[in-house]
Every structure is written in structure tokens, then in C-alpha cells.
Amino acid sequence: MNVQVEKLEKNMAKMTVTVPAEDFEKATVEAYNKQKNRITIPGFRKGHAPKAMIEQMYGAGIFYEEAVDIILDRTYPEACKESGLEIASRPEISVDKIEKGQDLVYTATVAVKPEVELGQYKGLEVVKADAEVTDSEVEDEIKRAQEKNARIVTMDDPEREIKEGDIVNIDFDGSIDGVPFAGGKGEDYPLTIGSHSFIDNFEDQLIGHKLGDKVDVHVTFPDNYHAEELKGKAAVFAVEIKTIKEKQLPEIDDDFASEVSEYDTLAEYKDSVRREIKERKEKWAAQENENNVVAAAVANATIEVPDAMIDTEAEQMMSNFRRRIESQGMKFDQYMQYTGMTADALKSTMKPQAETTIRTRLTLEAIVDKEGIEAPEDRVNAEIERSAKQYGMEADAFKEAIGDQIEQLKRDLAVQEAIDFLVAEAKLTDAPKEEEKKAEAKPEKKKRTTKKAAEAKEAAEAEGSKEQ
């Protein structure tokens, strides 16, 4: 096998691989052995027709496609090593010469890992993420707990009117110009007043009505409604109110605190809520600071990322996304039909993130190399232990199983070390307070000079010149 490398523009390269004729012939024999049981030749039992006879009847190229696949599986990985290139994309393969008794020649066009020109990455000034907890955040958290512990009580009073927040069960029958339409009928439908889950002002028109009332609700379907035949149409729903339920919230007091937490008083409960929110926000802030510092370093770096590299990353993201969808019990094709997207459209939406991922990784790897960063042994061992446990293996067995991949593991951990290094070197500044923002935004007042003041100034200057 012979490999020739040609560097192309924009971090692309072309490998021309020449495979000896005898190796190509062996591949066609393997292809024949794989396919012969599926080929029928008059006068021969299936699977017993000679290769030459099949080629004479169907042409020499009948085994070429399978033979090329065999050749690529065997030669492409070795060709990549021999080329000395850091290949960063799937290859675009083209067979340039294929003929019986001749050398096989194919080309593989690939993206190569781009050079990174680092900009400033140490001492980056980044606004620190705010981890302060406000009183309103604490109150909101407690209100959510209050909502979760609400009681739903059925209202039996015939004089009780529907109000905002009530849950009603209704029968409804919709029509347009007196004609019922598909999907316009429902029985015992639970509807929360104020949820705006029904079109237009449907729910508002039930407020003030009572148990057992029959109401005509008038609505207009929006112009962008999903059913084409209903867009912009005025409809009437005959509604019967079957039940009215009220959501009753508990009082937020010491009793409430003791029921929803391990604390006896509301004050203690509020303090615990504040601590929990603080812990969450500090974790979020640490991650946000990391992201912002890394993003600043990436923005300062110059990298020419080839399109083929972005395309390969986007395809990998697509594969991961497909696995997540299918792990949730939905077939990927069904998901695509449900969202109305094509695979190409979905992949296109992923390309910006794919490019960001590539730029981030390349920048961090360049910093690892420039700073000579290595992952500490204890961090490597801890990661091996964690991964081994995940697969139900002993650490030594896992280490042996991954073989050479341990070097990639060390590289990945070194990249995380680089992130820690950037954050430690960065200058995290507090965000300006609201008053400071307003002061900065406020234009400086210019001194205004009245007409009389200007005349007095001119007179004084004139008098001064006379004295001189």
C-alpha cells in the first residue's frame, strides 16, 4: 500500500491510497465467497457457480462494491497512521481507479486538526455570577411548597360562583354557524380557571356562573390555530358546569413549617430554604463562572475550523440525541414526524453548537500543551474507579479493558485541569449595582450659561483688558 498526502485549503487534506492489484483481487475473492449463495447461474447449484462464470455473465464489477468495502476496512486505518495527519472528520471517499488486474486507487478527503493561535487566556476579567439569595426567591420557594400542599375541596353550595383558580368539570359541545366540528365535544373535562389552556377567553366567560349552569361560550379561533378549517372562525360552545372545586392553600405559619419540613418554626424553615437556595445558586454560579471564563479564552483564540469537522461533530450530536429520544421510549422517526423536522434540518440547527464545542475543545487543548498541564495521578485513579464502578468492574480490569484509551482519558482530565487553571487565573469582578448602572447611563449635565451671565462675562473681560 502506498499513501500520498496533499494539503488543501482551510485545514483539509487529501490522501491518495494505492492498493496492490493482488490485494484487490483477494478482496474480490472474499466478496465472491460472501455473495455466491445469493447468485443464480443456469446449470449450477446455488453457491457453486465459479467466480469467473459469474463475472462473465454479470460483468467483472459485480463484486467491486463489496471488495472496496473490504479494502477500506483494512487499509484506511493504516493509511491514516501512515499519513501522519491528525484527522478530525469522517472521510469523503472516492474510488479513482478500479479495474481487474490493476492496482486499486482511492482518495480520502478529510479535515485535519486546525492550528490554534491563542490570544489572552490568563487574567481574563469576567463579571462574577451572582449567587446572592433574595427574600423574594425564598418567598417563591415557600409558595411553591404551599401550592404542593394545597387541598382540593368540592364546592356543594349551589350559590357558590366560579372564581379564578377554581377547578371545574364541564361538558361542552362546540359548533360553527350551528354545525358541530371535529374535536369540539368533551365530557367531564377538568379545567382550571385562569390556566388559559382553552382558546381565547373561554375560561373568563365561566367566572361568576354556578354549579349546574348551562352557558353559551363565544370564542374566536386564532389565525394561527393548528386546524386549518378552524383558523379565524367564530364558534359557540354549549357548556354545562358539572362540578366546582376550590384549591385551598394552607396558612404559612409554624404549623405549616412543621408539616413540610423537619423544623418547628416558620423562621427556622425560612432559614433552611434560604440555605438550600444558596447552595443551588453557588453551584450554578461556579459553573457559570467557568463557562464565561472559558468562553472569553475561546473568543480570544483564532481557529479556522473546517466545515467537514463541524459536520462530523453535528452528526455525533445527532446520534447522541437519537439515543436520548429512544431511551425515553419514543422512536426517532416518530419524533421527527411529531416535530415536523427533517434529519437535515435538525442537523443544521446543531451546527452552531457543534462549532462552539470544537473551538472550546481545541482552545483548551492548546492551553494544556502551552502550559504543560497534566492530570494528577489521584484524579486519574479516581476517574478510573468511578468508571469501573459504573460498569460493575474492578479498577484494574477496567484499566486493562480500555487499554490505550487511558491516554485519551488523561487528556480529557487535563482539559478539565486547564479549565480550573483559567478560573484560578481570572479576575472575577462583581456586577455593577443598579444605582451604578443608572449613574453610568445618565448623561453628564453640561453647565448652562444664561444670556445675562454671558454678557457680564464679556463686560468683565473687556474691563480687564482696559486696565492692562
Describe this structure in words.
This protein is an alpha+beta fold and 468 residues long. Among the domains are: 2-113, 2-Layer Sandwich (Alpha-Beta Plaits), CATH 3.30.70; 151-248, Chitinase A, domain 3. Helix content is 48%, strand content 19%. The protein contains 14 helices and 13 strands. The strands form four sheets. Strands 7, 8, 9, 10 and 11 form a five-stranded antiparallel β-sheet that branches. The protein has a four-stranded antiparallel β-sheet with strand order 1-2-4-3. It has a two-stranded antiparallel ribbon with strand order 5-12. The longest helix has 35 residues, at 266-300. It is extended, with a radius of gyration of 37 Å. The termini are far apart.
* CATH fold naming of the domain at 2-113: Alpha-Beta Plaits
The chain-level structural class is alpha+beta
Distance between the termini: 101 Å
> What's the quaternary structure here?
single chain
Features:
alpha+beta, 4-stranded antiparallel β-sheet, extended, Chitinase A, domain 3, 14 helices, 468 residues, disordered C terminus, Alpha-Beta Plaits, 5-stranded antiparallel β-sheet
Draw up the topology in text.
Layout: E1 2-8, E2 12-19, H1 21-35, H2 51-58, H3 64-83, E3 92-97, E4 104-111, E5 116-117, E6 125-127, H4 135-148, E7 151-154, E8 167-176, E9 179-192, E10 214-220, E11 234-248, H5 254-260, H6 266-300, E12 302-303, H7 307-327, H8 332-339, H9 343-371, H10 377-390, H11 395-402, H12 405-425, E13 427-429, H13 434-441, H14 451-467
Parallel strand pairs: 6-13
Antiparallel strand pairs: 1-2, 2-4, 3-4, 5-12, 7-11, 8-9, 8-11, 10-11
Helix pairs in contact: 1-3, 4-6, 5-6, 6-9, 6-12, 7-9, 9-12, 10-11
